[in-house]
Write a structure and sequence with these properties.
- α5 links the parallel β4 and β5.
- By secondary structure, this protein is of the alpha/beta class.
- Strands 1-2-3-4-5 form a 5-stranded parallel β-sheet.
- It is about 45% helix and about 15% strand.
Length: about 170
């Protein structure tokens, strides 16, 4: 685990080596750094814990404004059990064989104004988000679609991109 002081040092070190913007994907309100350029302002839409839907976001909002970070609105959706992210986030995982449920959430995210959707199978999991689910979401969602978890090879990444992941 990295605390806020260590995160700040990591961001500064990265910024010395790259010209691309540094975008944070925080796991909690402690994942905000004044040196970053932007932050994924995510809502774990299929959590049954309000903390991960709106409370953590409210707690971090003033820091994001104070540090003048670009907030990138993103729907975070756990597919299947989601590994550690699903467990910690108390997600009601979208069944892998129900792409229509993922599409419904993605469309709701679009109507909320979220410019990104992240379909997350979970780190270290055996499976990954199916091409069918990716294609189903891409068909209805007019934004950037990120897919992660279980992608362990370039070929798996290519399949996700071919199905519609950005």
């Amino acid at each position: 685990a990295v605390d806020q002081i260590e995160l700040e040092e990591v961001v500064k070190t990265i910024k010395k080596s790259v010209t691309s913007p540094v975008i944070l994907f925080p796991g909690n309100v402690t994942g905000v750094s004044p040196s970053a350029d932007a932050i994924f302002f995510s809502c774990l839409m299929n959590s049954d814990n309000p903390y991960f839907i709106t409370e953590a976001q409210a707690l971090g909002a003033l820091a994001i404004r104070k540090y003048d970070l670009e907030a990138i609105p993103m729907a975070y959706l756990i597919v299947g059990d989601g590994g550690a992210a699903g467990f910690i986030g108390r997600a009601k995982g979208i069944p892998p064989n129900k792409p229509s449920l993922a599409s419904m959430y993605a469309l709701a995210a679009q109507y909320f104004g979220m410019r990104f959707v992240y379909l997350e199978a979970g780190s270290g999991v055996d499976g990954r988000v199916s091409q069918n689910m990716i294609a189903s979401v891409k068909k209805v969602y007019n934004g950037t679609l990120i897919v992660g978890g279980g992608i362990t090879s370039p070929e798996a990444a290519q399949l996700a991109a071919k199905a519609g992941a950005n």
